[in-house]
Amino acid sequence: MSWAALTSGGKDSILAVQKAIDAGMQVSHFVTVVPENTESYMFHSANLAAVPVMANRCGAAYVEIRSAGVKEQEVADMEKGLAELGVEGIIVGAIESEYQRSRVAAVCDRLGLKLFAPLWKVDPLTLMHEVASRLDAVIVVCAADGLGENVLGKKIDEKLIGMLLSVQKIRRIHLAGEGGEYESLVLNAPCFSAPVHCSEMKSSYEGLRGEVVIDRFW
C-alpha cells in the first residue's frame, strides 16, 4: 500500500513521515501545496524549495500542487491534485487543528483514501521532545509576541524548548506552533539518506513576522 505525505518540510509533517516509515508504511510521494497567499489557512509558504530535496532523500516522488491560497478553494485544489496520484492513503502532521484535519479527512473520504495522522492530540511537550531528539529542525518563521531573534533560525533542541516554555507562560503561545506562532524546516531525519544542505540563512522582519530566507537547497 502506497502513501502520499502532505508536507511543507516542517517538523510535524516530517515527523509523521518518519512514524509512517517506522511502522513499515511505503511513502511513495511527498506532496506540497504551494499557496500564492502567504496567509493561507491550510498551508505554509516559507522555503518550500527544500521539499523536493527531502523527497529525494527519502526515495519518494515530489508532487507540487499550485493554489491561490483562497480559503476553502485551496482544499479543492488539494483534492484535485491528490486524486491524480494513485495512492491509497494520505499522511498528515496535524496536532490539534480541527480545521486542517477535518478538511483533509473529508477529502480522503471523498477520494476513498485512508488517513494517517500519528501526531493527532499528542501532548505538545512530548512532541517537541521527540522533534528535538529525532530531527534536525530549525525555526524559519516566527509570528507571535515574544518570538523573534530568540528563536528565528535556531535549531529545535532542549534549550529552545525551554525558551518556548518561558514565552508560553507569559504570552500563552502554543508550544508546538499549532496556532501559527512559528514554522519550522527539517534539515535531517532518520529517514533521510543524507542531510539537506542549504545556502546562508538570512533573516528579515516585517512587523511581528520574522522569516529566514534561504536561496538554495541541495
What this model shows, in words?
The structure is a single chain. The chain is of the alpha/beta class and 218 residues long. It has helices spanning 11-22, 51-57, 73-83, 98-111, 124-134, 158-171; strands at residues 2-6, 26-35, 61-67, 89-91, 114-116, 136-142, 182-188, 201-206, 209-214. Strands 3-2-1-4-5 form a five-stranded parallel beta sheet, sandwiched between helices. A four-stranded antiparallel beta sheet has the order 7-6-9-8. Helix 2 (51-57) links the parallel strand 2 and strand 3. The longest helix is centred in the middle third of the chain and has 14 residues, at 98-111. It is globular.
Output the keywords:
218 residues, alpha/beta, five-stranded parallel β-sheet, globular
Strand order of the largest sheet: 3-2-1-4-5
Which geometry do the CA atoms define?
Answer: globular
Q: Tell me how many strands there are.
A: 9
- Please indicate the percent range of residues in DSSP E strands (runs of 2 or more): 15-25%
Chain-averaged pLDDT: 94
Helix-strand topology string = EHEHEHEHEHEHEEE
SS field, number of helical segments: 6
Short description:
With 218 residues, the protein is α/β, with parallel strands linked by helices. The protein has helices spanning 11-22, 51-57, 73-83, 98-111, 124-134, 158-171; strands at 2-6, 26-35, 61-67, 89-91, 114-116, 136-142, 182-188, 201-206, 209-214.
